[in-house]
Amino acid sequence: MDTDTARLLGEATERWAAEHYDLPQRAHRLRCAGGFDAATWRIYAELGWLALRVPEAEGGLDADALAVGALMEAVGSRLLLEPVLASAIISTGLLVRLASPAQRVRWLPALVAGHAVLAFADAPNGCVWHAGTLRGQAGAVLHGDVADAVIVAAHDAATQRPMLCLVDIAAGAALRRQAYRLVDGRGAANFDFEGLTAEVLAVDDAAASALAAARAEAAVAQCAEALGCVRALLAATREHLALRQQFGRPLGANQVLQHRAVEMFMLQEEVAALTAGAQQALALPAAARDSAVAAAKAYVCRAARQVANDAVQLHGGVGITEELAVSHHFRRLMVNAALFGDRDTQFARFLAGVQGGAR
Amino acid sequence: MHAESLAEARQRAQALRARVRYFHAHEMPAELARKSAQHEVLDKADYVQWMRLLHEQGWAIPHWPAEHGGHGWSLLERFAFEDELARLGCPWIIPFGVKYVGPVLCAYGTPAQQQRFLPRIAASIDWWAQGYSEPGAGSDLAALATQAVRSGSRYIVNGQKVWTTYAQWADWMFCLVRTQREARAQQGISFLLIQMNSPGVTVRPIATMDGYHHVNEVWLQDVEVPLENLVGEEGRGWDCAKFLLKNERTAGALVGMVWHALQRLWRAAAETGRGDDAALVQRIGELHLRALALEAMAYRAVEAMMAGTDHGGEASMIKLRGTELYQAVAQATIDVLGPAGVSFEAAGDAGGVLKDHLYNRAATIFGGASEIQRNIIAKTVLHL
Are the Cβ atoms of A262 and B374 closer than 8 angstroms? Predict the structure, then answer.
């Protein structure tokens, strides 16, 4: 998919969301169980979003990181609640990489049609694969509350190597699932796997390399989502500074506030540049890819949080209210910072790359 | 810009980088490369040698129009070229002739002025200085008060310029002077070329904390300047000044300077036995991450300028982020060097690193202070 196609996808997504996903409409969806509206999810399928990561031969669009980024940017700016990242990008991506013919037939058509939701639990320390069964816990699995299946990154007790398996909840896998809401309104679950039988997706080196690729893809998609949030936050803040009158003039007439807004703008431009770079880096060999992607997410994570902090501050009291999108973007960025490799983890990964000779 | 031509420009920029690295490794005098990379003091002869070397390579005036000897480099090539030179620690490209007054003469000069000055600028035969700032006109440049009064076939110029870099070496100074008092301060300013050996020109050094003589006061007392040394129309010098600024918008050197300084910082950590000091590695790592962000932002900005999708704040952003990061890296290097970092007489290159650090505290002041750059972005991009 080229730049123009990706841009068109982004614009179409924004247009759809502007009409169907304003804050009151979003608040309505939040009242669904787990913040998940199955009807909306099927619309995403009709719009083709759920087919982005699937090869054309299997009914998908075979989209690249640029197109995924265009979609994720709109997800961030409009604060879409549905499992685009967890299911349509990360989990679908893992299945496309690893699934057997039978698994593909079982899942890919259902995912593309919007009849299934997958979650991804990255818990190699918490979950053990032993003699064909899975034991252990995975916490804060995004959209785990509504998932029909969960892909678990565990470790193999025999080899102490990573392995990836699929737990088919819809088929009645024996597990305990504690569902709850994250602070941004999206659903999550803590899983307790009590020696259940799971389907193997990959073991050893194949699992390790697929896991690294999935983590990188998740981080890059999150960068694009953060960019969407940051753009929305800056636009709202700029508007507020231009319109809000205090002391008989617009807030934006004060140089100290102008300069803070300029800092937000520069952070936005850096986030945009690093996100674009990270999208290109996905095509690099693993070591270079992982270092570049970790650097991008580490920077983007902190920059986006700073923009959110400043947006709240420059809005004044209304910045912390439910009524304004600002507080929702703030919470979304806060949650994202904790998911799929937090800032410290990403920074350490980047630093290891630098010290390993990438510098 | 079409995707194909951007891809081509990227390829040409990569090829140019390779050529620059080859030049640095095999053709540039080793002593000049060493002195520069270690921030030793370069004198006029070093810089003239450097500028002439660049000219021999065809690298002094690539951005000039073809009829004056340029060869149509894209913005990306210019940026990558300066970035690569700076990464290697090469000397500063002295900008006053080839980057500042040269393009102004190409655009606004008469054929006679172009014939007289351009070949000597290209070959670094004349040394040029920039007569802009005055005691009463710093960030507010249009407040300048140096006066030029027409008298027969010449102007009589009186006033004072300040912060004039390397005026002590200059043969010529291009100078903003006031020829009329108008309602708008930007009107009534003219762009004059003043020969430095004219009677009435006095250069006085300004001592700076890095212990080296870069900047000067230039006093102008009843200096006679022939009318033919006026560039463009009388009273329209601000147009030339703005054009000059626009032409100066590719600051690739900052990105390369940051990488050069960062390499030195990592080395300093290793040399002082602190390569495994977690707190220090964390500090340098954060700076390294900022350098990646600067680089990504800068190249995206250059490509936007080439595509015509720029928002107008790009040059300010690059300068802000680049200079502030450079200062942070330099300060960290001094900290890591410890006592060796606080004497000009320390062994190795520490004295040069110190000098460079002290001098570059001015990097966030000259060429539009950081606060002015933020004002520019607030106004042009955010419309506040």
Answer: yes
pLDDT digits (tens, 9 = 90+) for B356-368: 999 999 999 998 9
* B285, B296, B371 member nearest A354 (Cβ): B285
Residue A183 contacts B where some CB pair is shorter than 8 Å? no
Q: Give me the total of CB pairs closer than 8 Å, taking one residue from chain A and one from chain B.
A: 85
Average pLDDT over residues A250-256: 98
B251-380 folds as: Butyryl-CoA Dehydrogenase, subunit A; domain 3 (1.20.140)
Which residues does chain B have within 8 Å of residue A262's beta carbon, measured at their own beta carbons? 374, 377-378, 381-382
Nearest CB partner across the interface for A261, out of B3, B297, B378 = B378
Interface residue B384 vs chain A (CB under 8 A): yes
Residue A32, amino acid: C
Q: Give yes or no: residues A227 and A347 share one domain.
A: yes
Mean pLDDT of chain A: 95
Across the interface, which of A2, A259, A359 has its CB nearest the CB of B266? A359
Question: So what's the pLDDT on residue A95?
Answer: 98
Domain membership of residue A342 as a residue range: 207-358
pLDDT surpasses 60 at A359: no
B128-236 in CATH: which number?
2.40.110.10
Are A255 and B300 an interchain contact pair (Cβ–Cβ within 8 Å)?
Answer: no
Q: Are residues A172 and A251 in the same domain?
A: no
Residue among A83, A69, A78, A76 at smallest CA distance from A40: A83
For chain B, say whether A354 makes contact (Cβ under 8 Å): yes
* Residue-wise pLDDT tens digits, A86-112: 999 999 999 999 999 999 999 999 999
Note the residue count of chain B: 384
DSSP H or E run through A111: helix A101-113
Task: Let me know whether A102 and A181 are in one domain.
Answer: no
User: Of the candidates A2, A274, A298, which has its C-beta nearest B296's C-beta?
Assistant: A274
In this prediction, residue B4 carries a pLDDT of 65
Regarding whether A195 and A58 lie in a shared domain, the answer is no
Helix locations, chain B, DSSP H: 3-22, 30-37, 44-57, 75-87, 95, 102-108, 111-122, 237-247, 252-271, 278-307, 314-337, 350-359, 370-380
- Determine contact: A276 vs chain B, CB below 8 A: yes
What does the pLDDT read at residue A358?
47
User: Consecutive 10-residue runs of chain B (384 residues): their mean pLDDT?
Assistant: 78 97 97 96 96 97 94 90 97 95 97 98 98 95 96 97 98 97 91 98 97 96 98 96 78 93 97 94 98 97 93 94 97 95 91 95 93 97 97
Q: Do the chains contact at B378 and A276, CB–CB below 8 Å?
A: no
The reply to whether B248 belongs to the active site is: yes
Residue A127 Cα to chain centre, angstroms: 22
CB count within 10 Å of CB B97 equals 29
Could you state, in order of their start, the residue ranges of all structural domains in chain B? 3-93, 128-236, 251-380
Domain count, chain A: 3
What is the value of ipTM here, to two decimals?
Answer: 0.95
Q: How far apart are CA B236 and CA B231, in angstroms?
A: 9
B278 close contact with A: CB closer than 8 A: no
| Residue A174 contacts B where some CB pair is shorter than 8 Å | no
Chain-chain contact of B292 with A274 (C-beta, under 8 angstroms):
yes
Same domain, A178 and A238: no
Same domain? A211 vs A199: no
Of A204, A224, A253, which residue sits at a domain end?
Answer: A204
Cβ(B275)–Cβ(B284) under 8 Å? no
